[in-house]
Amino acid sequence: MALILAFLGRYRLLIAGLLLALAAGLWWSAHERGLGAAHEKAAEAKRLAQAQRQVARREAKAASISATAASDLTAARVVIQTRTRTLIQKVPVYVPSAADARCVVNTGFVRLYDAAVEGSPPGLPAAAGGPDEAASGIALSEVLAVDLANLGTAYDYRAEALAWRQWYAAQKKAWTP
User: Fold this and answer.
1) In the prediction, which pLDDT does 94 show?
2) Helix axes 107-118, 140-175, angle to 10 degrees
3) Mind giving me the DSSP string for 13-45?
4) How many C-beta atoms surround the C-beta of residue 30 within 10 A?
């Protein structure tokens, strides 16, 4: 014990310096960790702000894509509806009453046409009620007008399907990094 006290007495300045250096090192390490945490928080806030700006830009682009798609679809529908109305109005010009009088639309035609429109399974139409060769009482011009209206609806559905495909492709491109 006396030896230790003699050693401490002789090298007390050196030991005090080492303890002071150790304390300074511990303080500096804790200070640097605090600075590192603050730096990481600042970097994380910067990344978060950048990500929020990127999302805002993409959301604006997505809204623009949706607005354009809706506008284009509305314009296409106006064209389709106008064309369909015009064609239906031209039916009496191209199928005059004399042609209606000469052409007999038979019951079999009407049954088969109705089955096709309803999406019935293939084969003979199920409806009964007289021979297929009998006159149906439906004029050829009426058949054409109904068919033109159905085609207009089909073109409308086609335009909508194409608009959705284009919208999806544009949205996918806008959101893919």
Assistant:
1) 95
2) 10
3) HHHHHHHHHHHHHHHHHHHHHHHHHHHHHHHHH
4) 10
